[in-house]
Structure formats: structure tokens, C-alpha cells
């Protein structure tokens, strides 16, 4: 029993092979078949596993093909990809980063376009996710405080949401151009019926202005620069919770070619007013993440 326990811990309590005896390249072959979170857990087993789990070959296989371009956008920050891509690329060539560190950097919140948009890698699967602030959207009537206001909200990634009191013509449009890695993506509008706030430390919401959304559905539209189109309709229900309304899916086949996406959320039936709605952001996620949850997700 003592020898067996010692062997399981990687020690030399007796004869036989232990984890520390495995060649690092063999361990690396095993890690190549695991996802990033599993690799990090396996690194705790022994020094050999820890060394293999830090290898460039293991982590490069988990990075998107165009990770150098994504890293350039992250390095440029709010300055934009075009202005700093060349400088970032030169920096990478002069002092290459370990691929594990590259992966960690891309998993952080990387803002661009004046801080109104951000992307990050999903830690578990390595897919690119994106969030676009309401401040980056084109909203009909946003300049008239009788209709819309930007209000602070700590439930938003950007700490600010667009709040609609009342309007006849509801139209929220936007676009983004980005070098997404190959794959299938889903696009959502993140909205909330009612104005959320805190009272005595508890989360509550005001239903004062909620009206009009049960009369006609809202239309969601999406199109891409390579000719893909999608649309859907949905009544806005369930006040008091954030809901991701699915606008559509698109496929990226070339990660080195920017894909421009245009999207819209519209309810322009002028027979009635509508109001009491928070628009937080537009979210883009790899489809494998959205399939883990119901199409309408509460977050």
C-alpha cells in the first residue's frame, strides 16, 4: 500500500514506472487532444506534465489560425488595428511570446474602436467572442432625451446601457468589421425590459415605462459582406431579466479576410408607442457556445 501510494504521487517508493518517467513529448501528444482547461489541470500532476503543458506546440494548436492578427488588434487597443498592426507584428518577431502567454492575453478583454467594442477568447474552447456596446450602435432618436438616455449600469460589460422611455419608431442598427477565425457564429441583441437598479443592496427594476412590446414582434436582421443573410422575429417579454435575442448565424471561411457584419433590431409600426427597454450590447459568439444553452439565455 505504501509503495502504491508513493508511486501515485510520482515518488520512488519502489520499482515501476511513475508519471515523472514519461517522456515530455509523449505527454505533449496527450495534451494536444485536450481542451485548454484540461491542459491546465493536467499540469498539476507532475513536473513533466507541467513542462509539457507550457510547450509552444501544445498551445499553438489551441490558438486560432490568425492569432497574430488578433494579437495585433489587442496590442493596438483603442488605437485601431490598422495603425498598430505593423508595429505589433515587428514586436512579435523581435521578441516572440510563449504561445501559452499569447493564449492568456487573448482571453482577456481586448477593447478596440475607441473602447466601444471588445473581443476575447473563450477559455474553454479558444473561440473568439465579441461584445459591441450600445454606444457604438446607431439608434434612432438617441439625441433626444425625451426618448433615449445613456444610463450607468454595473450589469453591463461597458457599464452603460441605452434606455428607451418611449418612442414610435424603434430602430437600433450597427456594424462591425473583424477578422474572425474560421467557424460558425451566432449574433444576439442583449436587452432588458424595465430599468434595473439597486435598492437597499437588492436588485430591483422599474416597470414604469414598459409598454407596446406585446402588440407587434421586434424584427432582427443580419447580413455579411460575403452575402449571408438572416432574420428573426420575437415579442419582448419577461421583464426584469437580461435576454439574448438571436438575430442570426453566419459562417467564416477565411480568417485572414475581414468580415463585415451589419445588424438591426427594428419595430417601426407607428400605430403605437413602445418603451421601457434597456439595450446593452450586441454579442457575437461561436455557435458551439450557444448550443450549450437555450436560444433565449438569461445572463
3D structure, described in words:
- It comes from Urochloa decumbens.
- This is F-box domain-containing protein.
- The protein is α+β, with helices and mostly antiparallel strands and about 300 residues long.
- It has nine helices and 16 strands.
- It has helices at about 1-10, 25-30, 35-40, 45-50, 55-60, 65-75, 80-95, 100-105, 285-290; strands at about 110, 115-120, 130-135, 140, 150, 160-165, 170-180, 185-195, 195-200, 200-205, 220-225, 230-235, 240-250, 260-265, 275-285, 295-299.
- β11 and β12 form a beta hairpin.
- α6 (about 65-75) packs across α7.
- It starts with a helix and ends with a strand.
- Residues about 1-10 and about 295-299 have low confidence and may be disordered.
Name some characteristics of this structure.
299 residues, alpha+beta, 9 helices, 34% strand, disordered N terminus, F-box_dom
What coarse outline follows from CA principal-axis ratios?
Answer: elongated
Task: Work out the strand percent.
Answer: 25-35%
Number of strands: 16
> What number is the mean pLDDT?
86
Quickly count the helices.
9
Domain F-box: 16-62
InterPro entries: F-box-like_dom_sf, F-box_dom, PP2-like
Protein name: F-box domain-containing protein
